[in-house]
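A quick aside before the break. I want you to see a complete sequence-to-structure record at least once, exactly as it would be stored in a machine-readable document. Don't worry about memorizing anything.
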Amino acid sequence: MTLTKAMIVEAIAKQNGFTKKKSVEVVETMLELIKKSLELGEDVLVSGFGRFCFKEKKARKGRNPATGDSLMLAPRKIVTFKCSGRLRDKINTEI
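That is the input. The structure line, written in tokens, reads:
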């Protein structure tokens, strides 16, 4: 099952006694802060959860898998996620 933004809003409302409207504001504000930092090329560290890393990829040679033709892939910016050791341990703990 996928955790959606609506599910996060609902959980925040229940666990903190917020209204749904206030919970939406909290989630949207947090996501906007993360987006703005990444747009500026900054990494985002959430202690105990992980790090969203901004990376720039250089232009490189690629291949169209449908035709086999070679082509140059343009440089681009990507975001990667590296989970914290604590989260990794929780994920890998046997039930």
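Two observations worth writing down. Strands lie at 44-46, 50-57, 60-63, 70-73, 76-83. The CA atoms of residues 36 and 60 lie 27 Å apart. We'll return to this after the break.
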